[in-house]
Design brief:
Number of helices: 4
Strand content: over 45%
Largest sheet: 24 strands, antiparallel, barrel
Number of strands: 42
Radius of gyration: 27 Å
Helix content: under 10%
CATH topology of the domain at 32-240: Immunoglobulin-like
CATH architecture of the domain at 32-240: Sandwich
């Protein structure tokens, strides 16, 4: 009965979505603006990449200029214009950008490759080589010639976390120079670093500039203010004087050598190891890439930020391993945020041991095939083999994911997903129902031409060895966004037997209903760019439940002021009623006296937060909240302070505190999270970062210090020191684990 009801509901939602799609296509497809064009000339002259415009070839190139202000307001009124020239030959694309300025007080936070900051003077160039509005290469730099290469996916319509891949690396050259009244960025991008259709005569293109002297972001092609400046719906075109040949990407071999020494103080054992492995990148045609990895090692990866978790559910930490981040959009952009994540790469390489502890599980190797089969069809195939550990009762698993993405209409997509996690042989300690888990799913992603409408319809079914009565899951999300308004609706359902071993599911056997509305107010003058009033609502419920139907009923009201200098002030009210099916300790340190299960609890929190101007040498963020928390009260603050000694050092410190007084406990739980960080960039190739983190909830003091030398472009030497200590309130500090890694990677 319940399953039939759900299927009927999903069917009705699907009918509604299809109708909405057709409506949006019929009414918006012809509403496109005319975007700018540029002719790019072919050159046979030599061009020296030195941050100057003295080469004779630049005198023959056409010029384009930024024409629109994207922030703080939409207009053609800006003080500092930006000139760009492009040329190309048989092997490279050349860019020469002259950024004029009334001030030479530039912000250069770091010399580190791919450094990202909320405020930094820089210029970014976007190339949509297949002109599909879905994927683009973004190259950036500043007056110091600091490199940035990023892969934009999903049309740039979502969040930077989902759509920006900073681990993508390309071989290119850039230099910058400062002159009185302007600076120059000069760049050479090998065509072999890009995928594009053979014989291309034009690409979609845009470029934009961050100008901290005027607190402005300007673009060539106009991007409406409500969208990100990397949104691919709004781009101009560059037209080549002669058709391009093949991309001619080269086969890359990237071996590594890693030496490690470690000391486990808790088990009183030491270990020294020497390992080799590496990756091979093989281009297939103009759009596909085959990647092979053997014995991958991630010892050089930055450690996760410590988090104080006050909820019953797992926190999704970001993937930082380079192999899994390459072309990650083909595998990660599925499901619904905080509801269904059918595949999450961090599940590969982690396992539960016999005692239930989450431990690292060695990866033997794997393959990845990703890219374009045709102009409208993309494929992603990932298969990774993990090793077993009989002593810890960890089996070997073959983890396989297949995704297909077919472009439909203009920027929308129909997607297919298949996931299989399966043990490689029979193990006595593995339950029959855990020998494999499979999932198959379909999704439709809506992205209108002008980005006014976007959304998703998805349906999945999971399979395990034992019969599943209800392994179904599905949902729908529809969103409309204009300059002044943002409205969305989301519904999701997860069956009682739905599983995704390689994904993240907070709950099963539930439904989620989530409406959202926000309105922006734009003052005609003053220091405030706009006000934003937003209302969020989350409702988790069960159908025909014998215990509790409403599991969670939450709403959030926020009022935010965005200033023209990028500082922000926000007021928030959060109200929640939550049902606990089991006992739960929200402090994480009083497990012997939890809140009792099979009860509902109420939370009502008031918060104020402020972020100062990030272009200043000293800036900070601060958030303070107080209110009712389950059967007691909570006071918290989250502060971060940043100090910039440009361009060599960026220092920061995180200082978080939670004081939780639950009525059934005599003592107030006081949780501290302290994290100073020092990020040195001695040169554009030599970096040293040190992060110290103390988390009183986990009773851990961690030190991570990483020296990186990019000695030959994309080749690296890493020296990484990790140290962890047990820190108890009334006890001595005791060492836990200490490691020292020396790793060399070389890109042939």
């Amino acid at each position: 009965m319940t399953l039939n009801l759900i299927k009927i509901t999903i069917k009705n939602i699907h009918t509604f979505v299809v109708g909405l799609i057709l409506f949006s296509l019929g009414h918006r497809v012809f509403a496109q603006e005319t975007y700018p064009n540029m002719n790019v000339k072919f050159t046979t002259s030599a061009i020296t990449i030195d941050g100057k415009d003295l080469d004779e070839a630049w005198k023959t190139a056409d010029s384009i200029y930024t024409g629109w202000t994207h922030f703080p307001n939409e207009s053609t009124d800006f003080k500092n214009p930006t000139q760009l020239k492009l040329l190309y030959d048989d092997e490279n694309i050349y860019l020469m950008c002259k950024a004029f300025s009334v001030s030479d007080d530039y912000v250069i936070p770091s010399l580190k490759w791919d450094f990202s900051g909320k405020a930094s003077d820089k210029i970014n160039f976007l190339f949509d080589t297949f002109s599909d509005g879905n994927i683009a290469y973004m190259f950036g730099s500043n007056m110091a010639g600091v490199k940035s290469d990023i892969l934009i996916s999903n049309g740039g319509v979502s969040t930077p976390q989902n759509d920006i891949n900073r681990t993508w690396d390309a071989k290119f050259d850039v230099e910058g120079q400062i002159f009185p009244g302007y600076y120059i960025v000069e760049m050479r991008i090998p065509l072999s670093s890009l995928n594009f259709p053979k014989g291309s005569t034009s690409w979609r293109f845009n470029f934009f500039r961050f100008d901290t002297t005027e607190y402005q972001r300007t673009t060539w092609a106009r991007i409406p203010q409500e969208f990100k400046d990397f949104n691919l719906a709004f781009m101009g075109k560059i037209h080549f004087e002669r058709p391009l040949g093949k991309s001619n990407a080269n086969i890359s071999v990237i071996p590594f050598i890693n030496a490690i020494t470690e000391k486990n103080f808790e088990n009183d054992n030491s270990n020294k190891d020497f390992s080799i492995g590496g990756d091979i990148k093989i281009p297939i045609g103009n759009g596909l890439n085959l990647d092979l990895t053997y014995n991958p090692d991630f010892s050089q990866v930055e450690v996760d930020d410590e988090i104080v978790n006050l909820r019953r559910f797992e926190i999704k930490l970001p993937e930082k391993r380079q192999f899994f981040l390459q072309n990650s959009d083909l595998f990660s952009n599925f499901g619904a945020i905080r509801t269904i994540t059918p595949f999450f790469t961090r599940r590969i390489g982690l396992a539960r041991d016999a005692e239930g502890n989450l431990v690292e599980n060695d990866i033997i190797g794997g393959i990845r095939l990703s890219g374009k089969i045709s102009n409208g069809l993309k494929i992603g195939l990932l298969s990774m083999l993990t090793n077993d550990d009989i002593a810890k009762e960890i089996p070997s698993n073959l983890n396989t994911v297949l995704s297909l993405n077919q472009k439909v209409f203009n920027r929308s997509a129909l997607k297919f997903l298949f996931i299989n996690r399966e043990t490689t042989k029979d193990y006595d300690f593995v339950d029959q129902n855990d020998t494999f888990n499979r999932l198959i799913g379909l999704e439709y992603d809506l992205n209108s031409v002008d980005n006014l409408w976007n959304g998703r319809f998805f349906t999945y079914n999971s399979f395990s060895p034992l019969k599943n009565e209800n392994g179904f899951s599905g949902g729908v999300r529809v969103k409309k966004e204009t300059r002044k308004e943002e409205i969305s609706f989301e519904y999701s359902y997860l069956g009682d037997d739905f599983r995704s071993d390689l994904g993240i599911l907070r709950r099963i056997g539930v439904s989620k209903f989530c409406p959202y509305y926000a309105h922006k107010f734009y003052p005609k003058k003053g220091k405030i760019n706009y006000y934003r009033l937003a209302y969020y609502h989350w409702l988790w419920f069960k159908l025909n439940s014998s215990t509790e139907n409403i599991l969670e009923n939450n709403f959030l009201v926020s009022f935010r002021a965005i200033y023209t200098n990028q500082s922000e002030l926000e007021f928030r009210v959060f109200n929640a009623n939550e049902y606990f099916p089991n006992d739960f300790d929200p402090t994480g340190i009083n497990s012997e006296a939890p809140l009792l299960g099979e009860n509902s609890y109420h939370t009502n929190i008031f918060e104020i937060s402020y972020s100062s101007n990030p272009a200043k040498e000293f800036y900070f963020t601060a958030a303070h909240n107080y209110g009712k928390f389950y059967d007691g009260t909570k006071y918290s603050f989250e502060n971060s302070f940043f100090f910039r000694f440009q361009p060599k050092l960026l220092a920061s410190i995180k200082l978080n505190y939670d004081a939780i007084k639950l009525n059934h406990l005599e003592k107030t739980a006081k949780l501290w999270l302290v994290g100073p960080k020092f990020d040195f960039s001695f040169t554009k190739k030599l970096y040293w970062a040190t992060l110290i983190q103390f988390n009183s909830q986990s009773e851990n003091l961690g030190i991570n210090s990483r020296l990186q030398w990019r000695f030959n472009g994309l080749s690296n030497l890493f020296l990484v020191y990790n140290d962890n200590y047990l820190v108890r309130e009334n006890g001595p500090i005791a060492p836990r684990m200490r490691t020292l890694n020396l790793k060399i990677t070389y890109w042939f």
